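Try this one yourself first.
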């Protein structure tokens, strides 16, 4: 075993004949190389942080500034106020050295003053969000103020190419809304859901809260917004995710599917090697900050904070609250296959193994005929069950010995890879196979995914792939960026041989995988089995349907001058009303990464305008013009609500933080208690495909991911994730509970199909009427 070999790399002993030293040169060389690599990474990390810290300036501008100051001083011209001459007498050395040092100090100070002036000017410019509310369509006009703002931002950002974290210091903080504005938005959002009597009651509760305890609670939030980088994100991570004690499988974790219209290889080891290599390349881009930050409209930067924890990250269970642990570096991945765990080294002589070399390692694992140790097969069920039970088991059975060593290897791994022994199938003629594909990625068998890792790569026996991701460390958009990069790399930069293997030949024999060792006693196996039963109950209750809508896509929506997101959200409202015959509170996630350390805010798509339109669509006597007019009003309101949420003018995060403060102060608020207990019967999210422009869909039209999904939020509700995959293709991932008599995923998919068809028909009828009117004139 490699671990045992390393343990005797160096030994020192004293005998009656004297002292004796034994060492293994090969192992000591590996230790030395590892140390050198670690120090190199620290040095380059320091340089990268320095470069990002001075953006939008560059380090070269520092030397230029010092050179200019020195030249001006020695040429006899006095820098303003003769700063060099006044500084030099305080520096030791000869006259020349003192004045050179003085020039350096003055140049450095002037350079830093200019940098901070530029940075804070940029921050002030980025606080402006008026550009979001102005139409960017062809032929539309943009205000003069926005044009000047755009010109100034381009001027400040156009000096040189930014690094991943270059904009972090220039991003504004998330603004704290006033309680009055939040109350007004909240009451408007619930008006279509409440009858007159209940609305009057809720209005009275809101007014009582606004004029009462909220004044004190808001003061504390104001202090936090001044002190903290983001007044929401840390509490959101802790209280919404890490303090949750229920299983994270299905309830929190999410998944994403391969580009199902492509199948580059059916060789499992080759596909696994290709995807692993792409992930490692992406990790290197993050470490070197060579990954370009995302810019909206090529101008406004998004916060890159969440990228820090994509790799080498795990969620560690605790009795009352979990914690996220991120390791600075990891030189291995852990692979699970047929109930066994393997450590796989991914570096050799300070370079990442090539795909053909990783394929050798994957094939060795597939060919390994060893049997799992007692309890090893279902070990990961601990991460799928109740969090407190997992925390107790971790403290009791994994605190020392081989169990601790093996668990450390999993938690310190760059990520976990699962080589499944079943195929992942997409068959357009059999939708249930795609549903099963999604279920495999969402929860697997309940014991073959390490749900605590930041993400787990899953490779089917036929070479198709996907991932399962833990949610607390980041939002889906960050994993979507990684997944888009993986697919782009395979299409653009990597090919397979005719028989499906990775191209190239290994330059050396790659390090063989090593089995992780476990010593699981009867009590530990019993704890594993209990968590497995919890996981089985949960996953057996999940119904998942992945609906492929290929009748039309965003191309038709845009030709009718409608935001694709607003279009789909309105279709979902129509579908849900037809499914349940009522309206309910609807959750849609919107990102707030225009601000530093921003995560998400809630958009409430069930509005006064959307409900009026849905009722009109169900009214046989309503005219086409009336329906169309209400549709435009609903779409406009949804788009405004989405923009408000992105700009920090949401409802739910503010109320959530006020509630947290009230709990710290041990103050009860009937209003907050009722608001935060309201169930989200329909939870929706759009997979942000295409925002990074890594794939040219005109050249590679089939390189489209089917998106991903998540479990239902409410026991009697739906979870709907959708991706606008192309001009004529949409995917909907619909989940619900089988035990609920009110929900059915297949039925809701049919409702969505009918709603989208009716929406298209409405536009076509309106165009027909317009044509008839124009002809009559």
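Now uncover the answer:
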């Amino acid at each position: 075993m490699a671990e045992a070999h390393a343990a005797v790399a160096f030994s020192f002993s004293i005998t009656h004949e004297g002292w004796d030293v034994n060492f293994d040169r090969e192992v000591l060389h590996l230790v030395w190389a590892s140390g050198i690599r670690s120090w190199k990474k620290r040095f380059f990390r320091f340089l990268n942080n320095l470069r990002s810290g001075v953006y939008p300036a560059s380090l070269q501008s520092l030397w230029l500034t010092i050179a200019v100051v020195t030249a001006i001083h020695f040429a006899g011209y006095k820098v303003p106020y003769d700063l060099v001459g006044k500084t030099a007498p305080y520096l030791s050395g000869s006259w020349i050295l003192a004045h050179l040092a003085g020039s350096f100090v003055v140049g450095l100070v002037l350079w830093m003053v200019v940098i901070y002036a530029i940075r804070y000017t940029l921050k002030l410019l980025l606080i402006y969000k008026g550009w979001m509310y102005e139409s960017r369509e062809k032929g539309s006009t943009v205000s003069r103020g926005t044009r000047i703002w755009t010109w100034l931002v381009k001027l400040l950002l156009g000096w040189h190419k930014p690094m991943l974290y270059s904009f972090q210091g220039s991003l504004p903080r998330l603004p704290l809304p006033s309680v009055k504005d939040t109350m007004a938005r909240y009451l408007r959002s619930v008006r279509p859901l409440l009858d007159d009597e209940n609305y009057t009651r809720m209005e009275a509760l809101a007014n009582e809260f606004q004029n009462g305890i909220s004044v004190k609670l808001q003061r504390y939030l104001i202090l936090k917004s001044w002190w903290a980088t983001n007044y929401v994100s840390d509490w959101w991570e802790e209280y919404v995710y890490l303090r949750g004690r229920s299983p994270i499988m299905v309830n929190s974790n999410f998944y994403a599917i391969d580009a199902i219209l492509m199948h580059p290889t059916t060789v499992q080891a080759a596909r696994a090697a290709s995807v692993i290599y792409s992930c490692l390349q992406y990790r290197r881009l993050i470490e070197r900050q060579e990954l370009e930050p995302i810019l909206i409209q090529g101008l406004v930067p998004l916060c890159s904070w969440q990228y820090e924890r994509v790799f080498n990250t795990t969620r560690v269970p605790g009795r009352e609250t979990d914690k996220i642990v991120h390791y600075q570096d990891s030189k291995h991945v852990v692979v699970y296959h047929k109930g066994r765990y393997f450590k796989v080294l991914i570096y050799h002589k300070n370079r990442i193994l090539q795909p053909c070399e990783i394929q050798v390692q994957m094939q060795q694992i597939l060919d390994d005929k060893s049997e799992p140790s007692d309890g090893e097969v279902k070990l990961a069920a601990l991460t799928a069950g109740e969090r407190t039970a997992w925390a107790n088991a971790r403290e009791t059975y994994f605190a020392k010995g081989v169990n601790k060593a093996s668990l450390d290897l999993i938690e310190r791994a760059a990520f976990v890879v699962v080589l499944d022994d079943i195929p992942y199938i997409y068959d357009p003629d059999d939708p249930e196979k795609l549903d099963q594909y999604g279920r495999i990625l969402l929860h697997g068998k309940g014991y073959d995914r390490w749900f605590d890792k930041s993400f787990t790569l899953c490779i089917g026996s036929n070479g198709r792939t996907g991932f399962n991701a833990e949610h607390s460390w980041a939002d889906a958009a960050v994993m979507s960026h990684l997944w888009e990069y993986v697919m782009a790399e395979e299409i653009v930069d990597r090919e397979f041989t005719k028989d499906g293997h990775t191209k190239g030949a290994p330059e050396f024999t790659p390090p063989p995988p090593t089995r992780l060792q476990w010593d699981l006693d009867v009590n530990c196996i019993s704890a594993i089995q209990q968590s497995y039963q919890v996981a089985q109950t949960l996953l057996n209750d999940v119904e998942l349907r992945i609906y492929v809508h290929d009748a039309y896509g965003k191309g038709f929506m845009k030709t009718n001058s409608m935001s694709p997101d607003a279009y789909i959200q309105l279709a979902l409202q129509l579908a849900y009303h037809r499914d349940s015959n009522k309206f309910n509170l609807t959750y849609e996630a919107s990102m707030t990464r225009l601000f530093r350390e921003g995560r998400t805010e809630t958009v409430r798509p069930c509005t006064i305008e959307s409900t009026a339109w849905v009722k009109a669509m169900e009214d046989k006597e309503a005219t086409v013009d009336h329906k169309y007019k209400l549709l435009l009003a609903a779409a406009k309101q949804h788009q405004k609500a989405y923009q408000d949420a992105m700009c920090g003018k949401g409802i739910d995060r503010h109320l959530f933080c006020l509630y947290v403060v009230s709990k710290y102060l041990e103050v009860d608020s009937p209003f907050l208690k009722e608001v935060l207990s309201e169930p989200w019967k329909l939870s929706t999210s759009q997979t942000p495909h295409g925002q990074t422009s890594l794939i040219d869909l005109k050249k590679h039209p089939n390189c489209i991911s089917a998106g991903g999904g998540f479990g239902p939020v409410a026991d009697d509700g739906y979870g709907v994730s959708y991706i606008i995959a192309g001009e004529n293709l949409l995917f909907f991932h619909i989940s619900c509970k089988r035990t609920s008599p009110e929900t059915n995923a297949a039925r809701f998919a049919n409702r969505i199909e009918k709603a989208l068809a009716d929406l298209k028909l409405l536009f076509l009828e309106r165009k027909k009427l317009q044509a008839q009117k124009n002809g009559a004139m």
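Discussion: The radius of gyration is 29 Å. DSSP finds 25 helices and 22 strands in the chain.
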